[in-house]
Structures are given as C-alpha cells and as structure tokens.
Design a protein that fits this description.
5-stranded mixed sheet; Chorismate Mutase Domain, subunit A; binds prephenic acid; D-Maltodextrin-Binding Protein, domain 2; alpha/beta
Amino acid sequence: MVDDALKAQLQPLREKIDALDAQLLDLLNQRAAVALQVGEVKHAFDAGGPVLKPEREASLVRHLQQINGGPFPSAAIPSVWTEIVSACRGLESPLTVAYLGPQGSFSEQAAFEHFGHAVVPMRCESFDEIFRSVESGQAQVGMVPVENSTEGAVSRTLDLLLNSSLKVMGERSLRIQHCLMTQSGTMHGVTRVMAHPQALAQCQGWLAKRYPDLPWEAAPSNSEAARLAAQDASIAAIAGASAAGAWGLQFVAEGIQDDPHNRTRFLAVGKDVVAPSGNDKTSLILAVPNRSGAVYDMLAPLAENGVSMTRLESRPARTGQWEYYFYIDILGHAADEAVGRAVAQLKARAAFFKLLGSYPTQ
Ligand SMILES: O=C(O)C(=O)C[C@]1(C(=O)O)C=C[C@@H](O)C=C1
C-alpha cells in the first residue's frame, strides 16, 4: 500500500528527471558540435597549434560557479565541467598526458582530476621520462608532483624545471590518503613493505608503531609497489586506494599517513604560454649572489609592487659555494601590470632568472 503510494509520487518525478537528462544530453551534443567548430577555427589560424587553453577552461568553470543559483552545489561544478570540457576537447584533438605510472598512481588521479578522463594516458617510469616525453612532443602535457605538505619539495621535479624548456601550465592539489595493501588483505606471510620513498616517509610513524620489524624497500612509485605486490604475496604495498582497484589488492589498513591532512601539489607542464584567466599564479626561479642581504634585496620588488608571494623554496645550486636557486610562486599573471613590473625588476637584480610560467590558480 505504502509502496504503491510512494511509486505513484516517485514516477512523475523520475519522468521529469529523465526528460531533463535528455535535454542535458541534447545540450551537451550542441556544446560538443560548437567545440568542434572552435577546433576548426583554431586549426585554420594555427594549424598544429595547441587545442588546450587552460585559461579558458578555468575561467568558464569559475564563471559558472559565480552565476550558480543552486541547489546544484557550486563545489560540484569543477569536476562536472572538467569532464564536459575534457570530452569536448578530446573531440577537437586527443590530449596526451604523461605522468608517473603505472595505473592507479596519485599522479594519474591528479592528471584525471585536472584534465578529465577524455585524455590519452602516457604512464612513465620516472619524472625525467615525463619531461622528455613532453619535450619531444610525444605528450602535449605532463603532470608532476612538486611539493608535499609533510615531506616538502620533490627535488627531482625542481631540478627538471630548472633545466627544461617546459613551462608550468597549471596546478592541482590532491589529498593524499595512503593505504597498506596485500593480496589477501592480511599481513600473513608478508616479509617487506614497498612504496615510493616519499610515501614510506609519510607513513613512517604508523609503520614503526604497527610493524616495527618489517623492513622497507623503495619502489619507483607506489603503484609500481602495488603492481609488484599483486605478483608476490610476501610484499605489502603502500599506495592510494585506486591502486588497490587497479591491481586487485585488498586493504590491510586505510589512511595510514602520519599527517591526516597530507596533500601533494602537482604541476601541469607543457610547451605553451597560458594567457591570463583572471585568477592566476606565476612561478619563477631566481639565484642571487652569495652576500649578506641578497635575499632581502631580491624580494624587495615584490613588496614594492604589492605582489604576494605564496611559496619560497630553495635548492642548492651545486657550485659548492653555498649558493642557492630560489623557487618562487607569486599571485597574478606575468602579463598583469604590477606582476610584470615586479618580474622585470626581479630579473634585473638576479644573478639567474627563469620564468617558469603563469597559470590559473586551482
Ligand atoms: O574555447 C576553446 O578554445 C575550446 O577549444 C573549447 C573548450 C571547451 O570545451 O570549452 C575545449 C578546450 C579548450 O581547452 C578550452 C575550451
């Protein structure tokens, strides 16, 4: 009786949802057709030029969040539209994204969250291979981790940014939840724990407490550790939840990172300069002479032009002279007046200067 009354009320509502979904699909198809036209126009003006326009993607999502009247949650807009834009972009031209694999890695998650799923994945074995793949044109963009909230900078990425001609085209911050996983979901017969050294470091307190006698072994990536664990019952892997799904492993424990707020920031790198989106960041590398007050002097143009710095990281210049490269992120686009002025002044003062790129803030 109650069931019948419930069904009678639900049915017309579900019919409404079906009709709205059909309208949405029709609109999505219209959108896809227009995106194809955009692709043709771009091709006519710049054959072989980039289809990916990060500034346009970021600003259209922000605009929708601003005009959203609800009740559809504004927080859901970025992920929904990232997939819509990704599918339309994929129709224009396939986007190949290089990142640290294998399947199920955090880098893969970052790449999909940033570019959507309508991309061609290129799973690489090292950060160097990612940069090489993009430099050689095998992939249009790469996704690389640059800093972790527990472990700090990813030094190999910083070194590659210094020496490569690639530009920073975007950023993506991901919450990192590590899980311990084995074939059986127990630690029975397990003789070692494998993961990327960064993950082992991020879980060291938990491991020392729960499994103080189990040796650790470094793997090139967490998902590679998961792949190995899928072949060898004596290995427990630390990796993200999606790696368990990708390699058919069971969880022994979830969320084992020592810092529950553990996050990793990834950068999208590619060959193209990104135009202003209205809410941007600029990354640069500077070096100053090894004398007192040099760092203070170096940063003065930022304060003088009212430009905010969001990150300052140093890395030894390997000259043996206690000289450093400074990796700096500032708010704003290099094409903005104040940022442009500050950047020009920084360049004039620095012993070394490299503009890594301006890109939309996440
Ligand atoms: O506006 C463009 O340049 C497009 O190609 C369209 C579109 C979209 O689907 O909205 C797709 C890819 C670009 O990265 C940006 C936006």
